[in-house]
Specification:
The protein is an all-alpha fold. The chain is built from 6 helices and no strands. The longest helix is centred in the last third of the chain and has 33 residues. The relative contact order is 0.16.
Length: 153
C-alpha cells in the first residue's frame, strides 16, 4: 500500500473565515488573559483595561481588518497573492502605527484640550492600543490568508 499523496495531507478541513467569530475571539482572548493576569498580580488597572482598551481595541482592529480583507467574500488580488508573512507583518505594522497615533491622541491631546481629566488610564493607551491592534491584525490576517489560499487551491 502506498502512502497518500502530499496534496491529500495538506487539504485538511479548515473552518472558513467568519468575521463575527474572529471579532469575538479577538475581544475575548486578550480580555480574559489580561484580566486574569491583572487579577492574579493584584493590578486592578490592568483588569479594567483588559475589558476596555485592550479587548475593545483588539475587536475593533479585527473587525476593520477582517472586513477589509474579506470584502464581499472576494479577496483583492494583491492581498491573496502576497506572501503570508509579508502581508501579515505589513498590516500589523500599519495597525500599530494608526493605533499608536490614537493612543498618543488619547493620552496627550485629550487632557489638554478637553474637560477629560488627566487620569492614569490615559497613559495606558500608549501601550494598550498599538499592542492590541497589531496582535489582533496579525492573527486575523494570518488566519484569513490561510483560508483564502486553501479556497483557491
Amino acid at each position: 500500500m502506498s502512502p497518500p499523496p502530499r496534496t491529500a495531507q495538506r487539504c485538511f478541513a479548515m473552518r472558513p473565515f467568519t468575521l463575527w467569530k474572529e471579532v469575538a475571539t479577538a475581544y475575548l482572548a486578550p480580555a480574559l488573559t489580561a484580566g486574569l493576569g491583572g487579577f492574579l498580580s493584584g493590578q486592578p488597572e490592568l483588569t479594567r483595561a483588559a475589558f476596555t482598551s485592550i479587548g475593545a481595541t483588539s475587536a475593533l482592529a479585527a473587525c476593520i481588518v477582517g472586513a477589509w480583507l474579506h470584502r464581499r467574500g472576494r479577496p483583492r488580488r494583491w492581498t491573496a497573492s502576497a506572501p503570508r508573512p509579508v502581508l501579515t507583518l505589513g498590516l500589523a505594522i500599519t495597525a500599530a502605527g494608526i493605533a499608536g497615533l490614537a493612543g498618543w491622541f488619547g493620552s496627550d491631546w485629550l487632557p489638554s484640550h478637553t474637560p477629560v481629566p488627566d487620569a492614569g488610564w490615559l497613559e495606558r493607551l500608549r501601550i494598550d492600543l498599538p499592542m492590541s491592534a497589531s496582535l489582533a491584525t496579525a492573527i486575523v490576517t494570518w488566519r484569513w490568508h490561510g483560508t483564502t489560499s486553501r479556497q483557491q487551491a
